[in-house]
Design brief:
The chain has about 425 residues and is an alpha+beta fold. It has three domains: about 160 residues; about 70 residues, Signal transduction histidine kinase, dimerisation/phosphotransfer (DHp) domain (Helix Hairpins); about 150 residues, 2-Layer Sandwich (Heat Shock Protein 90), CATH 3.30.565. It is built from nine helices and 14 strands. The strands form three sheets. A six-stranded antiparallel beta sheet has the order 1-2-6-3-4-5. It has a five-stranded mixed beta sheet with strand order 8-10-11-13-12, covered by helices on one side. The chain has a three-stranded antiparallel beta sheet with strand order 7-9-14. Strand 1 and strand 2 form a beta hairpin. Helix 1 packs across helix 2, helix 4 runs antiparallel to helix 5 and helix 5 crosses helix 9. The protein starts with a helix and ends with a strand. About 20% of the residues are buried. The mean pLDDT is about 80.
């Protein structure tokens, strides 16, 4: 599928999901408000009925047609004509609310106008068969009524929620479907990205293998030419070329095999105590042999530092970073290889003044098959596996590797590892 088509599919999928979420949210909120209005109406009717029952009990009349006032979302006050007995009030509240199908816990209190405070209150649990407990009487006062009682529903939102359990179950199922859709979309995009990276890898590998194979074939043809035996210098040159290209080809194959072992978790480290300065000196000498003119390197290491490492893989890690410094330098590579000791760790630092890495690729260079684009330049060879190998080896050693880079100014790699001092 082409990139444009995939973008349209992703965009339409996201728009569809957002539309479904918006519609579901709209209806959930609408149903919530409807359920809350319904519950408020039930409570209002029940409390109004309680006011009439209390008036009949005291052989008086209700002073108004609207004795119930809702002061907040969960607090109601009911006007009375006289002070009321708390036990009688509690009985009428429990029976009337149950008859009105309001199976929600509540607290009540009676206002005492002589003391100007709420008194005689309890917390009633309708769910637990009308069990009552003392309340803290922290009810707000209402100065427009002389005699009244207040009823507070502390779990009103939970009650409305329980009445909407079917809607929330359906919404949860919808959320799971959306999450699955999003995950599927992510997997598809990731697989597409891996497919593109693998295609680029195969193309790079083909070119990397084709060059030395072609060179070896040409050299072999020359060696088979009549009279070549009589030209020992030319014979020696082409034999050297075949040897160099064979080593190059073998190096590329080994790099692919190393990464294959990493993927299969078949790579075993053979760790030992390694003298860091000695290892870096060996790496430097081998590096200068391979790049006698292409690089200038400064070595700044502290003596007597020991680390636990697999020597072969440690050398491969540092050599990979040094090779990159040469590859991504337009002129003679200026490289600094050094160490910095901290309280419990030592850092191996590889810094160059090459092309640098664009900011959008800095955090991706350790991923498999990722290669930093070089525009119209095609002078940098590779599979995009070097830094991936470096990162995996550091992880297997429990080392921390970090990168700092600025386009046009160079790149700095730091490998942090525990150390001990030589005795």
């Amino acid at each position: 599928m082409k990139n444009v088509a995939i973008r349209w599919v992703v965009a339409l999928g996201i728009i569809t999901v957002l539309g479904i979420v918006a519609a579901q949210s709209f209806w959930v909120i609408k149903i919530w408000n409807a359920e809350e209005r319904k519950l408020n109406q039930q409570i209002y009717s029940a409390l109004k009925e309680v006011a009439y029952q209390l008036a009949n009990h005291s052989q008086s009349v209700v002073s108004t047609d609207h004795p119930v006032k809702q002061l907040s979302d969960d607090y109601f006050v009911v006007e009375l004509t006289d002070i009321v007995d708390a036990k009688v009030l509690e009985h009428y509240l429990k029976t009337t609310l149950i008859e009105a199908d309001v199976v929600a816990d509540f607290e009540y209190a009676v206002y005492d106008c002589t003391q100007q405070k709420m008194v005689c209150g309890n917390r009633i649990s309708i769910v637990n068969a009308g069990v009552s407990e003392p309340t803290n009487l922290g009810f707000p006062l209402y100065d427009k009524y002389t005699y009244y009682f207040g009823v507070y529903f502390p779990n009103k939102s939970s009650y409305v929620f329980s009445e909407m359990d079917t809607w929330f179950i359906l919404s949860s199922v919808l959320l799971l479907v959306i999450l699955f859709f999003g995950y599927s979309l992510l997997v598809i995009l990731r697989q597409k990205r891996w497919s593109e990276l693998q295609k680029d890898f195969i193309n790079n590998m083909t070119h990397e293998f084709k060059t030395p194979i072609s060179t070896i074939n040409v050299s072999a043809d020359v060696l088979q030419a009549p009279g070549i035996i009589e030209q020992p210098q030319r014979l020696n040159n082409y034999a050297r070329i075949i040897k160099e290209q064979s080593l190059r080809l073998n190096g590329q194959v080994e790099k692919v095999l190393q990464v294959a072992k990493l993927e299969q978790r078949a790579l075993c480290l053979h760790t030992e105590m390694v003298n860091l300065s000695h290892e870096l000196q060996i790496i430097l000498e081998e590096f200068q042999t391979r790049y006698p003119q292409e690089a200038s390197i400064d070595l700044e290491v502290e003596e007597g530092i020991l680390i636990v490492a697999d020597p072969m893989h440690f050398r491969n890690v540092v050599q990979n970073l040094l090779d990159n410094a040469v590859k991504y330098s337009d002129v003679t590579a200026q490289i600094r290889l050094g160490t910095r000791t901290h309280k419990k760790t030592v850092e191996v630092v590889i810094e160059d003044r090459g092309r640098g890495i664009p900011s959008e690729f800095v955090n991706k260079v350790f991923h498999k098959f990722v290669r930093v684009p070089t525009g119209n330049q095609h002078d940098v060879k590779g599979f995009g596996l070097g830094l991936y190998y470096v990162a995996r080896i550091c992880k297997l050693h429990c080392w921390k590797i970090s990168i700092q880079s600025e386009l046009g100014k160079g790149t700095l790699f730091k490998i942090e590892m525990p150390f001990s001092l030589a005795s």
